Amino acid sequence: MATGSFMGRSLDGVLWQDYRASNTGMAIYYGSDPISELPIREIPERYPSEIEPEPNYETGTLGYYSCARTKIRSTFVKSRIRFMLFITKYAGTIDDYRDKYFVTGYYRVTKTADVKRAHIRFLSDYSCLDEKVCYALRTEECRFVAIEDAFPVTPQLLKDWGFSGRLTRQSRILMTEEQTKAVVDYLRDKPDILDKYIEETTRLLPNPDEDDGYDEDGEGEEADEE
């Protein structure tokens, strides 16, 4: 979980390295927000929260402001994969699309950085303590589309991609160049509404300065039952 001060840190001070890769892809899952028409990532109702700010399409990064899925990012880099594709089970407000799976966007990753020291120093929850490296990914081509323009992901397609089981936050799907190109070309042919994703995400974010229910001793009211 990122602290407010870390979320405000600039990317300019990070030692980003150029990244060479083949045009293969990896698809990972993210949870979409239930009160938005757009398939933006899930937004916490209050802070502190276990909901990660990933994919961080505001900055075109993955794994910098959150340490989740360290091993998945490591596999991505070590396998020299170029495209990170984002799948969600749509939870938004348009009934016709709800509970169906879509690829809503992608990163074309061009830079990486080892952010292990930053995570241990600034994050309250990190998974890279026992890892040699914790990679953050950065893109110069970040594209997200409306749900009606997203790439449908059917059970048969998942089988064709070699994936079985249930999609979760820990799922990763390795894709060939041909499979990756089909999805990327499809999304490139649709209007890019990244600015609307960012605007909607910003609108729904809770104010981190508001009372979070914790007193000065760090003791808070008992959480509401889900």
Write a short abstract of this structure:
With 226 residues, this protein is an alpha+beta fold. Helix content is 22%, strand content 23%.
Task: Describe the secondary structure blueprint for this structure.
Elements: H1 4-7, E1 17-18, E2 22-29, E3 61-62, H2 70-78, E4 81-89, E5 101-114, H3 116-122, E6 135-144, E7 151-152, H4 155-160, E8 172-175, H5 177-188, H6 194-204
Parallel strand pairs: 2-4
Antiparallel strand pairs: 1-5, 2-8, 3-6, 4-5, 5-6, 5-7
Give an overview of the whole structure.
The chain has 226 residues and is α+β, with helices and mostly antiparallel strands. The protein has one domain (16-204). The protein has helices at 4-7, 70-78, 116-122, 155-160, 177-188, 194-204, and strands at residues 17-18, 22-29, 61-62, 81-89, 101-114, 135-144, 151-152, 172-175. It is globular, with a radius of gyration of 18 Å.
Derived structural class: alpha+beta
Residue share in β-strands = 15-25%
The overall pLDDT, averaged over residues, is 89
Calculate the terminal CA-CA distance, rounded to whole Å.
Answer: 20 Å
Q: For the CA atoms, what is the radius of gyration?
A: 18 Å
The SSE string, one letter per element, is: HEEEHEEHEEHEHH
**What is the number of domains?**
1
The number of helices is: 6
Low-confidence stretches: 211-226
Portion of residues within helices? 10-25%
Total E-strand runs: 8
Main beta sheet strand tally, sense and closure: 8 strands, mixed
What general outline do the C-alpha atoms trace?
globular
